[in-house]
Amino acid sequence: MNKVFLLSAAGTSYGKTDLTGRDLSMLASKHAIERAGIKSQDIQAAFIANAFGMAEKQGHLGPLLMSSLGIPHAPSSTIEAACCSGGSAIREAYINVASGFYDVILVAGTEKISHLDTLTATTYFSYGGDYCFEGNSGASFPGLYATMARSHMHEYGTTEEELAAVAVKNHDNGFLNDKAHFQKRITIDDVLKSAVVADPLKLYDSCPFSDGAAAAIIASEEFMDKNNLQKRVSIKGSGRSGGSGSLHTRKDMTSLESTIRASREALKHANINIKDIDFAEVHDCFTIAEIIAMEDLGIFEKGEAGKAVVEGRTKINGDIPINPSGGLKSKGHPVGATGVGQVVEVFEQLTRNSKKRQVEDARIGLTHNVGATGGSCAVHIFEGE
Ligand SMILES: CC(C)(COP(=O)(O)OP(=O)(O)OC[C@H]1O[C@@H](n2cnc3c(N)ncnc32)[C@H](O)[C@@H]1OP(=O)(O)O)[C@@H](O)C(=O)NCCC(=O)NCCS
User: What sign for the dihedral angle of Cα 192, 195, 197, 199?
Assistant: First the structure.
């Protein structure tokens, strides 16, 4: 396989906006192209990560985006894998460039959801899980992740305070990120006293509904060399796995098999050990999700991640910083954009552009993106050159 580079990445602010998903994808893409130092015409194909375009009455975003970039001939496809749409689109771009089929691919993730009320948005989101047997019976994502949280508490003694510590740490990081949905610090007490969403998960254990977009340019070594482009970040490993699309059929609700499989594939591909990574952006749609992710990735032993968060080991200046961007919890979760936004954070970190949230000596970063309750997972490993 050919060596693949992350030539550039850029994103819009996350939060609520009057812009459409289409507008947002254009802004992020134009910024990424400009940062890459290439012309739109260099882009040969695009993958658009978008889960709920139909909620805006707009599917098939690709040709609209390509036309606004002045390259209507460029082929584009929408990638939909619920909350893992972004990571899946990065994976497709990686495979296309590694195989030598294309040299330059644009990945644009976008979502607009804030025009929907909470019930409507929650219903749309549940279409990404097992709607027939779970969503339709009222088991929406907060309820499903609450079930996982209760299982984890039962099996490993994980506490509500440990969950709260994840939210506090991610809000501390998001406070330093001027593009985050929430830029405010919170305390353990704030989390514990916030409104219960699905017991034991509360308002501050949950990610918000966000609008936003992110874009990345994936390029071959040959293209970089031919155009004298600086090789700053390479993609060392790519892993992608499916998992059970339903939660209620699983024997173990304290772990996501798709994370285990995708991360082992990515690590093997990169020929490194999980201990070699300097930081990770993981899928913390709810606080319990970050704890389960760290354990499934192998960063901590099963049942140990909650304690590690309380000890401060996952802070920006800790021994393994997790979600320096603020994560889904504080930076926000514009579904289609999320996995690409994680790549934007890795690009900023590895090019030493993260200002106050810069992870010292960051050289290897990992992204972990999950769809629904683990029906899809994508893991990528990046190295600063
Ligand atoms: C947690 C949740 C239920 C809150 O929705 P809500 O009760 O309708 O909240 P509102 O939009 O009315 O906002 C009420 C307040 O809480 C804040 N808020 C909303 N969601 C928040 C969150 N997740 N974290 C922190 N604050 C939040 C709002 O900013 C607002 O603050 P303000 O009154 O100071 O302006 C909703 O954000 C949610 O369902 N999140 C999970 C989304 C999800 O399932 N994603 C997929 C994961 S797999």
Answer: positive
